What does this fold into?
Amino acid sequence: MAEGHTQHQHHHDHHGPHFRFCPKCGGTLSRQLLKPNEPKRLVCGSCTFIFYDDPKVAACTIPVIQGKILLLQRGIEPGYGKWVFPGGFLDRGERVEDAAIRETMEETGLTVEVGHLLNAYSYPGYPVVVLVYPATVLAGEPQALDETLAVKLFAPADIPWSELAFPSTTDALTEYLSRVEKSHPS
It folds into this structure.
């Protein structure tokens, strides 16, 4: 780590936060089974408000420059120091594609255009749904900006598979490369 640079520790509970109080009245929340075949829901003991602890949505891009994939080395937890493609959480009311474009700009300084959705990735027990778009770089030079230690272009054969941050990173890159191979067989 560079001299004078401090590592920021962000602690995230990726199995979801543990809410204890009702956002409407301040009463105590407890998990209750409301319908068969559904998970227990957080219900206020005072006003009976049902608090749905829905998943977060992350919008990501796979930017490609001259046949190489741009990856970022994460500067925050979870996955500090591991490699990912640009992305982050949607803001309420934001279009998914716009969030993917915004996050790519914030983290890399690149202006991109997103293609058709590659896929949506979700995993049992993990409260984030990850939407990934292939991206065409329109302008800019890759830079390590927000929440990013480094940026690097990787040829498909050089992707650091064992150093990727998340299952969704591995799964999306695998799927993307498979589609590229099918559309451009050697």
